[in-house]
From TrEMBL, chain A:
<keyword id="KW-0808">Transferase</keyword>
<dbReference type="GO" id="GO:0005737">
    <property type="term" value="C:cytoplasm"/>
</dbReference>
<dbReference type="Pfam" id="PF00043">
    <property type="entry name" value="GST_C"/>
</dbReference>
<protein>
    <recommendedName>
        <fullName>glutathione transferase</fullName>
        <ecNumber>2.5.1.18</ecNumber>
    </recommendedName>
</protein>
<dbReference type="InterPro" id="IPR040079">
    <property type="entry name" value="Glutathione_S-Trfase"/>
</dbReference>
<dbReference type="GO" id="GO:0004364">
    <property type="term" value="F:glutathione transferase activity"/>
</dbReference>
<dbReference type="GO" id="GO:0043295">
    <property type="term" value="F:glutathione binding"/>
</dbReference>
<dbReference type="GO" id="GO:0006749">
    <property type="term" value="P:glutathione metabolic process"/>
</dbReference>
<dbReference type="Pfam" id="PF13417">
    <property type="entry name" value="GST_N_3"/>
</dbReference>
UniProtKB/TrEMBL annotation, chain B:
<dbReference type="Pfam" id="PF13417">
    <property type="entry name" value="GST_N_3"/>
</dbReference>
<dbReference type="GO" id="GO:0005737">
    <property type="term" value="C:cytoplasm"/>
</dbReference>
<dbReference type="InterPro" id="IPR004045">
    <property type="entry name" value="Glutathione_S-Trfase_N"/>
</dbReference>
<dbReference type="GO" id="GO:0006749">
    <property type="term" value="P:glutathione metabolic process"/>
</dbReference>
<protein>
    <recommendedName>
        <fullName>glutathione transferase</fullName>
        <ecNumber>2.5.1.18</ecNumber>
    </recommendedName>
</protein>
<dbReference type="Pfam" id="PF00043">
    <property type="entry name" value="GST_C"/>
</dbReference>
<dbReference type="InterPro" id="IPR040079">
    <property type="entry name" value="Glutathione_S-Trfase"/>
</dbReference>
<dbReference type="InterPro" id="IPR004046">
    <property type="entry name" value="GST_C"/>
</dbReference>
<dbReference type="InterPro" id="IPR036282">
    <property type="entry name" value="Glutathione-S-Trfase_C_sf"/>
</dbReference>
Length: 215, 185
């Protein structure tokens, strides 16, 4: 049964899946579409993703899309099989809180982080546009409020819900882009709990390797 | 062990949970904050939700926020206990596809629907503003593309992933808000 992942190595969503595969010790094949136009072809829309996006994962004949759904599926099916890494706690209350942190990531953390990423990393590289300072300013203000809350939530904890989980993986790609690529490290480093959390996270083997592979 | 839900009856996220509680046959207490300012008070931020939002659910002493996380928790813990309603399939592949539809709801369906809800339902009622026709137009155009995709995905199926699931519940509140005016879509 082969796992095949289709995506781009610099894409945040693709990176979530790659980190998860590596954390679970799962072998996989990786395929990169030739260009963006491929994603809008009849074949791609019919057989890979009706919304014309990556990543797409095949586990044998089973196809699944949407990065966080893919990661949750992989953890549900494979965690504990190849190694001892548990990404979704077995305890229903702990699992609920991990899911709560996933929701925080989707609705509170990612949107402002992505404002930085879109303007300072992607705008020139892919869209031939200059960064929009207004968007960056909004991103910074919103992210600061969120990181202040995370500083409290991380008190006394190594990872968001205590033990390492899917929620920590999901935060990694865009944090890296804003911290390491766009170089706004002070936002994390000025908050001791947040700083320690990110340091711990980005030095995990699976995370580190994936981030280093960004072209 | 009492389940207590704090929220507003007209709020989409609160409605997702109420529907889930009812589908699972779970009794619960419902509490509405006196006003919006309560949500920003020290007490609320510390003891209920650090992000100052509703809904908030207490299951005994266990507290959880974020509507879809609350619903998933309730289904994981209670489904099959009070009745036969299964909201998260036991089969891993089916569960994965339900989760995929939940992701569609979050990223493709809800944003354009919310554009319509915010302008046509909330603007006058809460913000004393007229609907912005530009936002309404964008919302409509995006939603039409999504509904065209859903039309194909629903072919031969009663519900999004065949059998009724959490994904169908999540789509309900905001669809209802918009359907009254935009049923043609």
């Amino acid at each position: 049964m082969t796992i095949k992942l289709i995506g781009f190595p610099y894409s945040g969503p693709t990176m979530r899946v790659i980190i998860t595969l590596r954390e679970l010790g799962l072998p996989y094949e990786f395929e990169t579409p030739a260009n963006f136009e491929v994603l809008k072809t009849e074949d791609f829309l019919a057989n890979k993703n009706p919304f014309g996006k990556i990543p797409v994962l095949f586990d044998g004949d089973f196809r699944i899309i949407e990065s966080r759904s893919i990661c949750r599926y992989l953890a549900s099916k494979y965690q504990g099989k190849n190694n001892n890494t548990i990404l979704i706690p077995n305890d229903v209350h702990k699992a609920g809180l991990v899911d709560q942190f996933v929701s925080f990531e989707i609705f509170y953390y990612d949107p402002p982080a992505f404002k930085f990423v879109s303007q300072e990393v992607f705008a020139e590289k892919f869209w031939n546009k200059n960064p929009d300072p207004e968007i960056i300013k909004q991103g910074r203000e919103e992210l600061i409020k969120v990181l202040d809350i995370y500083e409290k939530l991380l008190e006394g904890k190594e990872y968001l819900n205590g033990e390492f989980s899917l929620a920590d993986i999901y935060h990694s790609p865009y944090t890296h882009y804003v911290y390491g690529v766009a170089k706004h490290s002070e936002l994390w480093d000025s908050r001791p709990n947040v700083k320690n959390w990110w340091n711990r996270l980005r030095n995990r083997e699976a995370v580190k390797k994936t981030l280093e592979e960004i072209p």
